[in-house]
Amino acid sequence: MKFSHFYILPLLFASIFSLSWATSSHEDFLHCLSLRSNDSSSISKVIYTPNNSSYSSVLESTIRNLRFSTPNTPKPLVIVTPLSTSHIQATIYCSRNHGLQIRTRSGGHDFEGLSYVSEVPFVVIDLVNFRSVDVDVENRVAWVQSGAVLGELYYRIAEKSRTLAFPAGTCHTVGTGGYFTGGGYGLLFRKYGLAADNIIDAQLIDVNGRILDRKSMGEDLFWAIRGGGGGSFGIVLAWKLNLVSIPTTVTVFTVSRTLEQNAIKLIHRWQYIAHELPDEIYSSVSLIRANSSQDGKKTVLASFNSLFLGGIDELVPLMQKRFPELGLVKEDCIEMSWIESILYFGQIQNESLEILLDRNFRSPITSPYYKAKSDYVKEPIPEIGLRGLWSRFSEEEAESAVIGFFAYGGIMDEIPETANPFPHRAGNLYKILYNVGWQEEDNINSERYISWARRVYSYMSSFVSKSPREAYINYRDLDIGTNNKGNTSYAQASIWGRKYFKNNFERLVRVKTMIDPENFFRHEQSIPPLVSSRKKIAH
């Protein structure tokens, strides 16, 4: 017993010391903010600490994965919702001076919660007040601030034009800031590329508080922020977008088939066809567990989803020729405007367009708690492989699981891997998203669901890309590797870095070493600087 006291006392002392350090650091940080701000009264209105009655509601307002909203989840010492760039500059300066990390949140959709969770003392900069959208129809461009969600961007474009759009995703509550930094694919990506491929300028605050645009930051940094992941290079305030042409009418369809209706054969065939369809077609397949018509047994439902930039009369004969096995008929198709197709694919087609402005909307597509993983497929999976995947849906944990296949090809085959950090271009038939969800009452069993996702991922290893096994940064997955809490070696970060970025990871590290050599902006999967450069600067 004496030995246990001997060991407990230092641990107790260390715990008390750590708590007192965090408290004093927190108070010093707040004092620093008031001194550094041009208007101390204005910054006081956008600071939330655990003592504020609004702290919890602000923190939880855009936590999209409740797996990271538990009593045990680390919470920020301070949340800042800046109204001006000076508030952000002051927060960066004071965080550096008082040993606090920064997490930057625009929409809160980071799959692993990295925009609002950290294992070390940290501050959240929530860009909820940085969400203006300025659309210039004549020049076919728009400036959007990083706190705006995709729905706000789409709505403002549609307000001014029925023939302009921006190639981004269908989940309208996703924040533009985080989405753009990961590349960003969507309904138009086979025609126009990723969101990041259509960004032509940006405004960023760096670690020294400088406000940089494309010209002043230089092409290397501008390259890095368009697909290199958020939280590594600074805080992007706003983006200048190149808008793209769309017809006034588009066509959508969803055709669903069960296992008993030859769904496996259809998916097997889809793998050979989808990536070679015209650029004007977006094509995906989603797999879920469903009730069978046979005695109420469970089956797997495969839904073939498409958007076509044109009318029904052009789409149906095209699909009947290229994919006759699907049996598409006119009655399966719906004509609508492009902006209405965002609601359709978000499964909110019965709502008015104003729903796009509701950044707090909870999507019916995703479960409140979830774990996701991703893959890229270079060769068609044989039918026996698809049957093995099907069998995973019979497991208890798969009740709310969704697996999505998203066809590549089109212009994605033509854009070089090095055009920006997103490298998944030519050679990919499709991307896979594995998503397993659960409800609050089952969160105590969360590890069971996460294990299901990992087992499916393991099963798929022989059918997907290899050396590296590629992954999509916007489907963040800490299973594939993480950094240390302090400094991380190039070799260690390469484990996950090459899966997201392939050979572009090396250039990202060089840019990081140039712009943030002391690694202030960091998290579990941030780009590390070269250690040798950091040591030189320290001396």
Determine Rg (CA atoms, Å).
24 Å
Compute the average pLDDT.
93
How much strand?
Answer: 15-25%
Largest sheet: 7 strands, antiparallel
Q: What does the overall shape look like?
A: globular
What would you call the structural class?
A: alpha+beta
Q: Low-confidence spans: pLDDT under 50, at least 5 residues? A: 1-21, 532-539
Order the strands across the largest sheet as they lie in space.
15-12-14-13-17-18-16
N-C termini distance: 47 Å
Number of strands: 18
Approximate helicity band? 25-40%
Number of helices: 17
Would you spell out the secondary-structure blueprint of this structure?
Layout: H1 2-36, H2 40-44, E1 47-48, H3 55-60, E2 78-80, H4 85-97, E3 101-105, E4 122-126, E5 133-136, E6 141-145, H5 150-160, E7 164-165, H6 176-181, H7 189-192, E8 199-205, E9 211-212, H8 214-217, H9 219-225, E10 235-242, E11 244-245, E12 250-258, H10 263-273, E13 281-291, E14 298-308, H11 312-322, E15 333-336, H12 338-345, E16 369-377, H13 383-391, E17 402-407, E18 430-438, H14 446-459, H15 490-501, H16 504-515, H17 531-538
Parallel strand pairs: 2-4, 3-4
Antiparallel strand pairs: 1-2, 5-6, 6-10, 7-11, 8-9, 8-10, 12-14, 12-15, 13-14, 13-17, 16-18, 17-18
Helix pairs in contact: 1-4
How would you characterize this protein structure?
The chain is an alpha+beta fold. Helix content is 33%, strand content 19%. The chain has helices spanning 2-36, 40-44, 55-60, 85-97, 150-160, 176-181, 189-192, 214-217, 219-225, 263-273, 312-322, 338-345, 383-391, 446-459, 490-501, 504-515, 531-538, and strands at 47-48, 78-80, 101-105, 122-126, 133-136, 141-145, 164-165, 199-205, 211-212, 235-242, 244-245, 250-258, 281-291, 298-308, 333-336, 369-377, 402-407, 430-438. The protein has a 7-stranded antiparallel beta sheet with strand order 15-12-14-13-17-18-16. A hairpin with a 5-residue loop joins strand 8 and strand 9. Helix 1 packs antiparallel against helix 4. The longest helix is centred in the first third of the chain and has 35 residues, at 2-36. Residues 1-21 and 532-539 have low confidence and may be disordered.
